[in-house]
Design a protein that fits this description.
- By secondary structure, the chain is mainly alpha-helical.
- It is built from 17 helices and 5 strands.
- The strands form 2 sheets. The chain has a 3-stranded antiparallel sheet with strand order 2-1-5, with no helix packed on it. It has a two-stranded antiparallel sheet with strand order 3-4.
């Protein structure tokens, strides 16, 4: 199906806006579509002085088989977001969804259950009077596709079945530790971080007393390294970046300590886990490209900035509510930085954050042109770049269709009724 040639069949509404979700895929892909139950517009107001420009990596390279141009893939389906009229504020396009979302959903749920039932996790108390186990229990109260699983489903869309399940579980690990890191004392972070790190390093010998959670983390580690034995080296990099993420500096308490947006984004680049994201992108396509190559550094810096900015715009309202209610100890967000520095209210600060996002997209365009003109990039490097851009696109798409940011207020109606959503539900 070509963008724009599908006639509306069934409309879903949210706050008076119509979303033609039946147009998001062709008939041949309907059974593989992950249910969409929420649509969240992070910029629901008019910003007439900003306009995004179309940007796609396929403008800069072409797969020898031409499959990227034709939208064909063994592991993903193309999402026609234009026909569906989803509020995607970006110049990036060509959004895709992994075909194996059901298996990823199951793997995610299994891992969260292990966290919820683990005795060690029940004993790790956070500053908000919750435990790591209760954090997992919260995620299990609704479909995990509305919390964690959507990120890997859209960000790493080209992963085959087994790799998709491993990536979904790695996303759970980084989210669980991030929640701990933001809401625990330094002592608890060190003790728990060492628990994670020791399992990921494989420095703790396997024993009959290992908990099911410990056994699962060992299995995830083995699966990542086993994937590298087949092809690529992204699995080892995922483990390395997860370990580094566990060892990053303590969270900052206030955002007004940053002297500039650039200083904040430099901090956020690590805080949001961009190295982990790029390692996952490598693993998803069996790549051995060097993400640390000097020629790629400016591009990956800008792609990482994009991921950070999109996350901050989408999550600001949720973070602010959590802080004001005592559920979070701080607000670490670009919108808040702009509000503090420029003395603005939230809406104009969001608009300025969006302007920085579009400025970053233009920087990505310049980086791609530079790489194309240099002639330094082979097909393997371009595949990796495309996977990283796919992660940025998937991150943005997830921010729109996940419950995490908009909550129940973002649930869409079906033909004007309650509930709804489009796609094939799990049995």
């Amino acid at each position: 199906m070509l963008i724009g040639d599908h006639q509306p069949v069934e409309h879903h509404t949210k706050n008076g806006k119509a979303y033609d979700l039946c147009a998001i895929v062709g008939d041949e892909d309907t059974e593989m579509l992950c249910p969409i139950r929420y649509v969240f517009d992070s910029l629901p107001f008019q910003i007439n002085w900003l306009k995004s420009q179309p940007l796609s990596s396929s403008l800069f390279w072409e797969d020898k088989q031409g499959s990227c141009r034709r939208g064909e893939s063994l592991n993903s389906i193309l999402l026609d977001t234009c026909a569906a009229s989803l509020p995607l504020h970006t110049g990036l396009y060509t959004f895709r969804q992994n075909k194996y979302w059901r298996a990823s959903e199951q793997a995610t749920e299994e891992l969260l259950v292990l966290f919820a039932e683990d005795e060690r996790c029940r004993g790790i108390l956070l500053s908000n009077n919750k435990s790591m186990a209760s954090l997992a229990e919260e995620q299990l109260r609704s479909s995990v596709m509305d919390t964690y699983s959507r990120f890997s489903t859209y960000m790493f869309a080209e992963a085959e079945d087994k790799r998709a399940q491993l990536l979904a579980q790695c996303v759970v690990l980084i989210f669980m530790f991030d929640d701990l890191w933001e809401n625990a004392s330094k002592e608890i972070i060190e003790v728990t971080g060492n628990f994670f790190v020791d399992r990921l390093h494989n420095t703790m010998p396997c024993t009959a007393e290992d908990s099911p959670l410990e056994q699962r983390i060992d299995a995830i580690r083995g699966g990542l390294l086993g994937g590298d034995e087949e092809q690529g080296n992204g699995g080892a990099e995922i483990l390395e970046t997860l370990i580094n993420f566990c060892h990053r500096p303590e969270p900052v308490s206030v955002c007004n300590q940053f002297a500039s947006i650039r200083e904040y984004l430099d901090y956020r680049w690590t805080d949001v886990g961009n190295s982990f994201t790029f390692a996952c992108a490598k693993f998803s396509i069996r790549s051995h490209a060097d993400q640390h190559h000097p020629a790629l550094r400016p591009l990956l810096r800008h792609i990482g900035d994009h991921i950070s900015i999109v996350n901050d715009i989408a999550s600001y309202d949720k973070e602010k509510r959590n802080f004001e209610s005592g559920k979070a100890s701080s607000v670490i967000n670009l919108v808040d930085v702009i509000m503090q520095q420029e003395r603005l209210e939230a809406e104009p600060a969001k608009a300025m954050a969006y302007a920085w996002q579009l400025f970053t997209e233009e920087a990505i365009r310049r980086d791609l042109n530079r790489l194309k003109e240099s002639g330094m990039m082979g097909q393997e490097e371009w595949r990796f770049v495309d996977a990283c851009l796919g992660a940025a696109r998937g991150n943005l798409f997830t921010s729109v269709v996940i419950k995490r940011y908009g909550g129940e207020g973002a649930r869409i109606d079906r033909k004007g009724g309650e509930g709804g959503g489009l796609g094939m539900e799990m049995g």
